[in-house]
Amino acid sequence: MLFRSKALTVATSEEAERLFAGLPVKARVGGGVTNAIALNETMVRGKTINLIQISILVVVITSLLLHSLAGGLLVLLPLATSGLVNLGLMGWTGIPLSMGTAAISAMAVGIGADYAVYFIFRVREEFQRCGDLRLATATALTTSGKAIAYVASAVAGGYLCLTFSGFKVHVLLGVLVALTMVTSSAATVAFLPSVILRVTPGFLKRKL
């Protein structure tokens, strides 16, 4: 609705400039619509910056936790994947990036950050026990991988209950957070092991 209002406001302003060109008259669109448009643009810009800040904080905190910058970047991979899928689906289905959806996206990124931490810690523990990175990754998939799937399913299922609400904001909250849970957990158990085995980061081999 706000996007249509913005397009109408811009078109009205352009038409007014054309009609009153050369005359000592200035016509501007005012009222609550312009205030709502400005507020929406400010919120979207702020939440976009907030997403970047959250990503940086995730990398910094997990790098300190794992004593490795590579570990922090590995944790960020599933979050980046889920974020891209989330925004891509919004664009594909025509869901606008508004105050509500921008806030939901920022919140959902923070919720899904722990799955990669679970998995990486488990891989490191198993590697210290067996000394084989491939076996350690496989064991982590059958242990922490199951836990990640259960937690993600529980959180996603809980938020999907909001889709039965009659309020659009609640429906979007349920769908987008559930989608983030599914994509971040799937990226953790499918994409992250491949990267670990391909890159073989050194911090996984250091003693705890």
Summary, kept brief:
81% of the residues lie in helices and 0% in strands. It contains 7 helices and no strands.
Helix-strand string: HHHHHHH
Strand content: under 5%
Number of strands: 0
Shape: elongated
Task: Determine the structural class based on helices, strands and strand pairing.
Answer: mainly alpha
Largest beta-sheet characterization: none
Rg, please? 23 Å
Low-pLDDT segments: none
Question: Would you give an account of this structure?
Answer:
It is a single chain. The chain is mostly helical and 208 residues long. Helices cover 81% and strands 0% of the residues. The chain is built from seven helices and no strands. It has helices spanning 2-19, 32-66, 69-93, 99-111, 114-130, 133-160, 168-199. The chain starts with a helix and ends in a 9-residue tail after the last helix. 27% of the residues are buried.
Topology of helices and strands:
Layout: H1 2-19, H2 32-66, H3 69-93, H4 99-111, H5 114-130, H6 133-160, H7 168-199
Helix pairs in contact: 1-2, 2-3, 2-4, 3-5, 3-7, 4-7, 5-6, 6-7
Notable characteristics:
about 210 residues, mainly alpha, elongated
